């Protein structure tokens, strides 16, 4: 049985390529804590840092026969951690940007929905107040405001004077203004 603890990284890497589990265990023991420290310092989430390091070792074992480590094993593993940290931070950033954009959109939608509901409530109240006006006053108001008829046309349609149309509109607008103010307060 070999003393794997005294072997160099390059020897351990060559043994790993030959499916040597003891070499893998030695690499794991030698570098796990160092890699975890690097990840934890960057990510600030210990569970995620541990997951990163575990993934690196799982990947190292899975690719053991095809490993092409040109520099020191420690540098290769440290770069692997940094690469995965960057990917996670980038993903977090994109998720946060997406969440921020959605929050802004939802706020806009909430505001527009709220404004629409308030508008509909006002419109309903106005219709109720118009319905409470005297019949002739109500008819003149609807022809003027809802149908868009000019006062002269209303006078012709209802066979009344323009002054009477003007009086009905004045009364309707004063009454509605007072009622809406009361409602809003």
Structure description:
With 185 residues, this protein is mainly α. The chain folds into two domains: 4-98, Rna Polymerase Sigma Factor, Chain: A; 132-184, Arc Repressor Mutant, subunit A, CATH 1.10.10. It has seven helices and no strands. The chain has helices spanning 9-17, 21-43, 46-62, 73-131, 135-146, 151-158, 162-184. Helix 1 (9-17) packs across helix 2, helix 3 (46-62) packs across helix 4 and helix 4 packs across helix 7 (162-184). The longest helix has 59 residues, at 73-131. The mean pLDDT is 85.
Helices and strands in order, then pairings?
Elements: H1 9-17, H2 21-43, H3 46-62, H4 73-131, H5 135-146, H6 151-158, H7 162-184
Helix pairs in contact: 1-2, 2-3, 2-4, 3-4, 4-7, 5-7, 6-7
According to CATH, the homologous superfamily of the largest domain is RNA polymerase sigma factor, region 2, helix turn helix motif
Structural class: mainly alpha
Count of extended strands = 0
Average pLDDT, rounded to a whole number, is 85
Highest CATH level, the class of the largest domain: Mainly Alpha
Strand proportion, as a percent range, falls in: under 5%
Order of helices and strands: HHHHHHH
Cα distance, first to last residue?
A: 91 Å
CATH architecture of the largest domain: Orthogonal Bundle
Low-confidence stretches: none
Radius of gyration: 39 Å
Number of domains: 2
Named CATH topology of the largest domain: Rna Polymerase Sigma Factor, Chain: A
């Amino acid at each position: 049985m070999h003393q794997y603890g005294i072997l160099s990284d390059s020897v351990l890497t060559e043994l790993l390529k030959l499916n040597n589990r003891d070499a893998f265990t030695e690499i794991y023991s030698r570098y796990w804590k160092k890699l975890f420290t690097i990840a934890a310092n960057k990510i600030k989430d210990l569970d995620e840092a541990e997951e990163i390091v575990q993934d690196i070792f799982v990947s190292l074992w899975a690719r053991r026969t095809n490993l092409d480590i040109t520099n020191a094993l420690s540098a290769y593993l440290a770069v692997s951690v940094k690469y995965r940290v960057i990917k996670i931070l980038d993903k977090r950033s994109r998720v946060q940007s997406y969440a921020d954009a959605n929050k802004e959109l939802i706020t806009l939608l909430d505001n527009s929905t709220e404004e629409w509901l308030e508008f509909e409530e006002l419109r309903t109240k106005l219709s109720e107040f118009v319905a409470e006006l005297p019949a002739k006053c109500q008819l003149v108001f609807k022809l003027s405001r809802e149908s868009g008829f000019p006062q002269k046309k209303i006078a012709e349609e209802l066979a009344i004077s323009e002054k009477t149309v003007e009086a009905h509109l004045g009364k309707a607008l004063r009454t509605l203004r007072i009622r809406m103010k009361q409602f809003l307060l």
